[in-house]
C-alpha cells in the first residue's frame, strides 16, 4: 500500500455523519430484486452477471449500473462489482431517513468486509456533505470514509481530494420555564422538514 502520510489521503471519521448510525442492517435479510437486459447465472462457479440498465434493490440498498457482476465465496459472502458512467449506490442509515449516496465509474461492494469502494471520479455524499476523489472507501460497519486523489494525475491538478463539510448544528437548548404558575401550551408543535429524497 502507498505511503498513507501523503497529503492526498484524507481520513474522515464520521465528519459526514450528523449522528452515530449504521447502514440499514435489516437490508441483508431482504430479498434482492434485480432488473437487467441480460442475465447470466453460473451456480457451479458461484458467479452472476447482469448487463444493460441494471437496477438492484435490496431493502433500502439501491444500485444502478450498466453492468453488475456478483461472486460468492464458500461461506456465502458476496463481492459485487458495478460499472457505469457513473454507477450509483444508495443506502439508508439504520433508524434514520438519511441516506449515504455514492457514485463512481466502478463500485465494489464486499459483504464480508462490509465496505464499498468507489473508483474513478468517485463522489460520496450524505445530506449536504460531500467528498470527491479518485478512490473512496466507505465502511458500512464503522461509517468511516477514506478518500485519496489520483497519483497519476499530479501534473494536471486532479490529484487532490475535495470535500464540502457543513457545520453541525448543536441541539437546541431547552426553553426556560416561565416563573409564573400559568403553563402555556403551544397550539402546534414544529417539526424539522422531512429529508429530501432523490
Describe the structure.
It is a single chain. This protein is an all-beta fold and 198 residues long. The chain has one domain: lipopolysaccharide transport protein A fold, CATH 2.60.450. The chain contains no helices and 11 strands. Strand 3 and strand 4 form a beta hairpin.
Name its key features.
lipopolysaccharide transport protein A fold; 198 residues; single chain; globular; eleven-stranded antiparallel β-sheet; 11 strands; mainly beta; disordered N terminus
Give a quick rundown of the structure.
This protein is mostly beta strands and 198 residues long. It has a single domain (9-164), classed as Lipopolysaccharide (LPS) transport protein A like domain (lipopolysaccharide transport protein A fold, Sandwich), CATH 2.60.450.10.
Draw up the topology in text.
Layout: E1 9-13, E2 33-35, E3 38-42, E4 47-58, E5 61-72, E6 78-92, E7 99-110, E8 115-126, E9 129-139, E10 144-148, E11 162-164
Antiparallel strand pairs: 1-10, 2-4, 3-4, 4-5, 5-6, 6-7, 7-8, 8-9, 9-10, 9-11
- The CATH homologous superfamily is called Lipopolysaccharide (LPS) transport protein A like domain
CATH topology: lipopolysaccharide transport protein A fold
Q: Percentage of helical residues?
A: under 10%
- Uncertain spans, ≥5 residues at pLDDT below 50? 1-22, 177-191
Strand content: over 45%
DSSP strand count = 11
Amino acid at each position: 500500500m502507498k505511503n498513507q502520510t501523503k497529503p492526498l489521503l484524507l481520513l474522515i471519521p464520521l465528519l459526514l455523519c450528523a449522528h452515530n448510525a449504521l447502514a440499514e442492517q435489516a437490508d441483508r435479510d431482504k430479498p434482492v430484486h434485480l432488473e437487467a437486459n441480460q442475465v447470466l447465472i453460473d451456480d457451479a462457479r458461484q458467479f452472476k452477471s447482469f448487463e444493460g440498465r441494471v437496477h438492484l434493490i435490496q431493502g433500502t440498498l439501491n444500485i444502478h449500473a450498466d453492468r453488475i457482476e456478483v461472486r460468492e465465496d464458500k461461506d456465502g459472502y458476496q463481492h459485487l462489482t458495478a460499472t457505469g458512467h457513473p454507477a450509483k449506490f444508495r443506502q439508508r442509515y439504520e433508524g434514520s431517513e438519511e441516506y449515504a449516496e455514492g457514485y463512481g465509474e466502478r463500485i465494489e461492494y464486499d459483504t464480508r468486509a462490509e465496505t464499498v469502494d468507489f473508483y474513478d471520479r468517485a463522489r460520496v455524499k450524505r445530506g449536504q456533505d460531500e467528498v470527491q476523489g479518485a478512490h473512496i472507501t466507505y465502511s458500512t460497519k464503522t461509517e468511516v470514509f477514506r478518500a485519496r486523489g489520483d497519483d497519476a494525475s499530479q501534473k494536471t491538478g486532479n490529484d487532490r481530494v475535495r470535500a464540502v463539510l457543513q457545520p453541525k448544528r448543536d441541539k437546541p437548548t431547552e426553553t426556560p420555564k416561565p416563573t409564573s404558575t400559568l403553563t402555556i401550551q403551544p397550539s402546534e408543535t414544529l417539526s424539522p422538514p422531512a429529508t429530501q429524497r432523490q
